[in-house]
Amino acid sequence: MPGIDETVTNTVPDLDEQALFYHRHPQPGKLEIRPTKTLGNQRDLALAYSPGVAAPCREIAKDPALAAEYTSRANLVAVISNGTAVLGLGNIGPLASKPVMEGKAVLFKKFADIDVFDIEIDAQEIDRIVDVVAALEPTFGGINLEDIKAPECFEVEERLRARMGIPVFHDDQHGTAIIVAAAVRNALLLAGKNIEDVKIVTSGAGAAALACLNLLVSLGARLENITCTDKDGVVYLGRNDHMDRWMSVYAKETEARTLADVIEGADIFLGLSAGGVLKPELLEKMAERPLVMALANPTPEVMPDLARAVRADAMICTGRSDFPNQVNNVICFPFIFRGALDCGATTINEEMKIAAVDAIAELSREEVSEVAAKAYGSETPVFGPDYLIPSPFDPRLILKIAPAVARAAEKSGVAARPIADWDAYMDKLNRFVFRSGLIMKPIFALSRRSGKRIIFADGEDERVLRAAQVLLEEKICWPILIGRPSVLQTRLERFGLRIRPGKDFEVVNPEDDPRYRDYVEDYFAKVGRLGVNPDTARTIIRTNTTAIATISVSRGEADGLICGLAGRFSRHIRDIRQVIGAADGVSRISAMSLLITQSGPMFFADSYVQEDPSATDIAEIAQLAAIEVRRFGIEPKVALVSHSNFGSADTEDACKLREALAIVRKAMPNLEIDGEMHGDAALSEDLRRRVMPHSTLSGTANLLVFPTLDAANITLNVVKTMTDALHVGPILLGTNSPAHILTPSATSRGVVNMTAIAVAEAVQRRRG
Ligand SMILES: NC(=O)C1=CN([C@@H]2O[C@H](COP(=O)(O)OP(=O)(O)OC[C@H]3O[C@@H](n4cnc5c(N)ncnc54)[C@H](OP(=O)(O)O)[C@@H]3O)[C@@H](O)[C@H]2O)C=CC1
Ligand SMILES: CC(=O)C(=O)O
Ligand SMILES: [Mg+2]
Is 86 annotated in some ligand binding site? Predict the structure, then answer.
């Protein structure tokens, strides 16, 4: 009978209560299903359902492989449990397992964009489980078995793998084994031990523990060095109770009967059993620099603080997200399925699992990405005892594991749809990780290997330091960082970054730079007649890093500048106006923003600079913005947006847009532009044609030009928030040299994007 151990609760006060609230509000559960196609009218209905739907049905009946093209099957996974081994809660039954299975579904979606139905089945007998799951093959591209207890899970998986033509993966076995193997590999590297020599003791001899041991053995661990224990104590040769053929592989000829008897000299404790079963004092008996993997959920076999108090030299892992070293199968299952589904793998084989182990282990030894660092809190982890494996939030996981798995599938001959275009595939994964990926591609292509130098006013900022490393790796520019050398050095070390001043980037030290006098002189020459006296100029060049950056650009020492991570926009734009100024033929500097939304990119101008532009200003903004949009490889479709729709009002703002339209049409006759029009008419050709059948704008506008700063900036922020869009910008338009002012909330990815934009601009200016 399903039952639950009432003593197993979360160890964090109030967490149970918070978790109940989280699951109940604002609506019950953690998931819903959303359509991916519009279903707004009779025609959509005829396509989505009868009669149109018959067409894909007929095609699939002729060729079943077409299900991958006409249905969501190829991206759909079933997370299936019978609730017999739910976390460490035991056999609590299928219904009570549903929150965990919904949780797994959310993780699949969040980390790898895989859709999941969680399926809890009321079945305990192997035959019944196998029949039910096998019958689901037409629906799914893969099966993730979850929390089914040993030994039944072994036979269930074995039989399903033999029967089904899609991947069947028991996550508690193989997902856990892969992440455990990666952590073991890295821990042994740090401890200077070989897998062939280490002594391993387990608590637990169930699904997870046995699968971990099997994988560790295939990686070199020796059977004679392994001892298993479970609820009945040591798994020894001759034991009759609770023995099965999978466990008996590890049965030992020994007189020892308890965990306490066998832990002496162990290098690895592998806990996949139940909370609190490892008494801290037992750790004293372990070998030097032991690896303690207390992986039972939600309560580990030993709490890390208790373990640490006894063994300061131990490397400690748990399955939980609230301690360092979260060894949990979430770091594996979304990504291994991503790779398997993307190449139409018919199974997940040993080669694919080893590829995943290698990818995870290697990733931990690289520098931590900004997103992963955030997932860990304020301290940036560096490969070491407290950072053996990456955080589940590390965006590089999908970029490394999925392709490695897909390649291994192809190589081992199980990929039914091998990846045809690897660049396109990596783009797709990148787009998922950084939604800016694809749209930024032409900009990155233009800027790569151009040799341009970009100066950063906020050189000491963590985001700039991280961005500088990426910019160098991607060969986008030679960074010049304004900052104190000692601070730069300390921060680079703290964030675990590899780049070094002088070797990888240049430094301008605001406190002591040999060019200081020249900078002051040049600065005074620019601003001496703008109310700045020589004394003030000296102070500014010591303290205002944006002013220093502008001088560096105007002296030709840098090809562009990035500033704005601290301080007010108005101060930065003043410095840029005063020193760099507007380009020849441009009357006023302006700005444009890019929002990357789920339905595509949208540009907004002037979103940051000109408060109340005149008709000629608006015409200039529209032209400069259109040129900038083309740099992204996008043909601009410009709408001058207003409260007035094609002459429906004669207010001052409406009139100035009409005037601006006439100016732009004359200057850029080939540009698709129209106005003034409502915001909805800009986005919907249907609506627009009803009022203006011969509009010179076709389709959906991608560049909205506004009559005032208020209108543009308010719309930008509302759309950004409502659509959860990614903001790239503001992109300054019409400056004499590339110069961009970031917002204080920009991420290091934002710094990289804006730098690439500055470099691309510098490259195109040179080409004329
Ligand atoms: N961090 C991670 O990624 C993962 C963690 N886990 C955790 O591992 C644990 C086991 O899961 P799983 O293998 O799927 O379940 P199984 O039911 O298949 O195996 C449980 C094993 O633990 C043993 N066990 C239970 N209670 C005790 C105890 N008090 N002392 C010693 N041994 C005990 C059982 O022994 P017996 O058969 O004698 O009852 C059995 O060998 C769970 O806590 C689960 O949350 C699982 C998968 C992934
Ligand atoms: C993490 C997991 O799958 C478990 O604890 O069962
Ligand atoms: Mg599980």
Answer: yes
The alpha-helical segments, DSSP class H, found in 677-747 are 679-683, 685-691, 709-723
State if residue 172 touches ligand 2 by the CB under 6 angstroms criterion: yes
For residue 39, the model assigns a pLDDT of 87
Task: Please check if 92 is assigned to a binding site.
Answer: yes
Asked whether residue 146 is marked as a ligand-binding residue, the answer is: yes
- Tell the residue nearest (CA) to atom 24 of ligand 1: 273
Phi, psi of 220 (to 5 degrees): 125, -10
- What is the residue with the minimal CA distance to atom 4 of ligand 2? 87
Q: Which helix (H) or strand (E) holds 293?
A: strand 291-294
* Residue 517 CA from chain centroid, whole number: 45
Which atom of ligand 1 is the closest one to the Cα of 298? 45
Can you tell me the ipTM of this complex? 0.99
Question: What would the pLDDT profile of 203-251 be if each residue is shown by its tens digit?
Answer: 999 999 999 999 999 999 999 999 999 999 999 999 988 899 999 999 9
Is 541 known as a binding-site position?
A: no
Q: Which residue lies with its CA nearest to atom 38 of ligand 1?
A: 231
pLDDT at position 423, please? 86
Please tell me the number of the ligand nearest to residue 295's CA: 1
For ligand 2, atom 6: residue with the closest CA: 87
| Strands 233-234 and 229-230, bridge-based pairing | antiparallel
Cα 108 to averaged position of ligand 2 atoms, centre (Å): 14
- Rounded CA-CA distance 462/487 in Å is 11
Q: What is the distance of C-alpha 586 from the center of its chain? A: 39
What is the average pLDDT across 690-715? 96
DSSP 8-state code for residue 11: S
| Residue position matching structure tokens 């040999």 | 514
Q: Is pLDDT of 397 > 60?
A: yes
pLDDT in the model for residue 657: 97
Give residue 421 CA to ligand 3 midpoint distance, Å. 35
**Nearest ligand, CA of residue 177?**
1
The model carries a pTM of 0.76
Domains defined for the chain, CATH in brackets = 44-166 (3.40.50.10380), 174-411 (3.40.50.720), 444-579 (3.40.50.10950), 590-734 (3.40.50.10750)
Mutation test residue for ligand 1: of 101, 230, 316, the one with most atoms within 8 Å of CB: 230
Bond into 298 cis (ω within 30): yes
Closest CA to 637 of 702, 692, 686: 702
More confident residue, 348 or 597: 348
Buried b / exposed e across 337-346, counting CB within 10 Å, b at 16+? bbbbbbbbbb
What local confidence, expressed as pLDDT, does residue 241 receive?
87
Q: What's the pLDDT band for 369 if we cut at 50, 70, 90?
A: low
Catalytic residue chosen out of the listed positions 37, 62, 104, 526: 104
Q: How far is the CA of 354 from the centre of ligand 1 (A)?
A: 24
Q: What is the mean pLDDT of residues 502-506?
A: 92
Q: Which atom of ligand 2 is nearest to the CA of 295?
A: 5
Ligand nearest to the CA of 84: 1
Strand order in the sheet with 637-641: 672-677, 637-641, 703-705, 600-605, 590-597, 726-733
By the 8 A CB rule, do 757 and 745 touch?
A: no
Instruction: Tell me the helices (H) and strands (E) count for the chain, helix number first.
Output: 30, 22
Q: What is the pLDDT of residue 432?
A: 82
- 726: part of which helix (H) or strand (E)? strand 726-733
What are the angstrom distances between the C-alpha of 27 and each of 31, 110, 447, 724? 9, 19, 47, 20
Mean pLDDT, range 447-460, rounded to an integer: 94
Residue with CA at minimum distance from ligand 2 atom 5: 87
Ligand 2 lined by 328 (C-beta under 6 Å): yes
Active site residue 104: yes
- Here the tokens at position 49 are 């359902």
Sequence-ordered strand ranges (E) for 415-559 = 453-456, 478-482, 506-508
Q: Is the CB of 172 under 6 A from ligand 1?
A: yes
Ligand 2 atom having least distance to the Cα of 104: 3
Is 413 marked as a binding-site residue? no
